[in-house]
Write a structure and sequence with these properties.
With 153 residues, this protein is an alpha+beta fold. The protein has 4 helices and 5 strands; from the N terminus they run E-H-H-E-E-E-H-E-H. The protein has a 5-stranded mixed β-sheet, sandwiched between helices.
């Protein structure tokens, strides 16, 4: 890796502490995950076919990450589709193109795997965030819905 260039690769078990610290920049109010549970969840993620946590490193520092999930499909001639989730860049490294580079890398991987589309949802209403995703090639031409687990379940 050359100095100053963003290195993009799948996360490995040794990256887990830095990845968990980075996720605090995504949802600072999330409860802390216990180390043993984090190790178990990360192992499950990396064992899941089609699921990859991509990380961006600048001079060895983990600055950004996205999760790519390629999902098998029985429509569209069997072409899979992909979902990008957990897009995050450390606050000290924002506005430098790191997340965009990761999203482009994830999309290219999805195309290489034969996906017919890549989906991404954001809860942000911030015009700059929406413009960022449009700048990455996403169209805001569908309606997204979600349902969250009710309290107490």
């Amino acid at each position: 890796m050359q100095a100053g260039a963003l290195d993009i690769r799948p996360a490995e078990p040794d990256d887990l502490p830095a990845l968990l610290a980075l996720y605090r920049h995504l949802n600072a109010d999330d409860p802390e995950i216990a180390p043993d549970i984090a190790i178990e969840r990360f192992a499950a993620i990396t064992a899941q076919p089609g699921m990859t946590v991509l990380i961006g490193l600048l001079d060895g520092v983990l600055t950004s990450s996205v999760t790519l999930v390629v999902i098998p499909n029985l429509t569209r001639g069997g072409a899979p589709y992909a979902l990008i989730e957990n897009v995050v860049t450390h606050a000290d490294y924002r506005k430098r193109g790191h997340a965009g580079a990761l999203i482009r890398h994830a999309s290219a991987s999805a195309w290489q795997q034969g996906c017919y589309k890549v989906m991404l949802l954001t809860g942000s209403k911030d015009a700059a965030t929406l413009a960022f995703y449009r700048g990455c090639g996403f169209l805001q031409d569908k309606t997204g819905f979600q349902i969250r687990r009710p309290a107490g379940l």
